[in-house]
Design a protein that fits this description.
The protein is α/β, with parallel strands linked by helices and 178 residues long. It has four helices and seven strands, in the order αβααβββαβββ. It is elongated, with a radius of gyration of 21 Å. InterPro entries: Rap/Ran-GAP_sf, Rap/Ran_GAP_dom, Rap1_Ran_GAP.
Length: 178
């Protein structure tokens, strides 16, 4: 009745079918995805606009170390794993990316600094086209910098994970996650 007021149900009867649980599991397996794509954006200290973060072409040592933590740097040309919408034949989405296979799940990271940079394009539409269509974006910061989700205009991005580089008392690399 919650879904359709015209339906009048007074009672339910159990359906006795020995293979029902197997059918439900089989159906459930069909809707589970083993492939994921996440955006990764490098936000330098003091950057507060979409244009600034999508225009970064250099990567700090801390950012490179974080990318290495996320997965393997791969060459896109002729890559055989899950490509996450990246071009693996003509090089139109750059030459390299970051990829991992975690517990049987393939993950391709759309790294802002590894997607093509277009001189004169303040919006960097080539970069934004991929990251803006992801559901999750990881924002990496070398140091504390304000990040507001509204900074990036997107109809698809729903979750932002802000990762900030920090160091422990012994000098170890640590990450603060917000």
């Amino acid at each position: 009745q919650l879904l359709c007021e015209d339906v009048n149900v007074e009672r339910f009867f159990p359906v006795l079918y020995p293979k029902a649980s197997q059918l439900i599991v089989a159906f459930d397996e069909h809707v589970i995805s083993n492939n994921f794509k996440f955006g990764v954006i490098y936000q330098k200290p003091g950057q507060t606009t979409e244009e600034e973060v999508f225009s970064n072409t250099e990567e700090s040592l801390g950012f490179l170390e974080f990318l290495d933590f996320l997965g393997d740097k791969i060459q896109l040309q002729d890559f055989r794993g899950f490509r996450g919408g990246l071009d693996v034949t003509r090089g139109q989405t750059g030459t390299e990316s970051v990829y991992t296979n975690f517990r049987g799940k393939e993950i391709m990271f759309h790294v802002s600094t590894k997607l093509p940079f277009t001189e004169g394009d303040s919006q960097q539409l080539q970069r934004k086209r991929h990251i803006g269509n992801d559901i999750v974006a990881i924002i990496f910061q070398d140091e504390s910098t304000p990040f507001v989700p509204d900074m990036i205009a997107s109809n698809f991005l729903h979750a932002y994970v802000v990762v900030q580089l920090t160091h422990g008392t012994t000098g170890d690399t640590l990450y603060k996650v917000n």
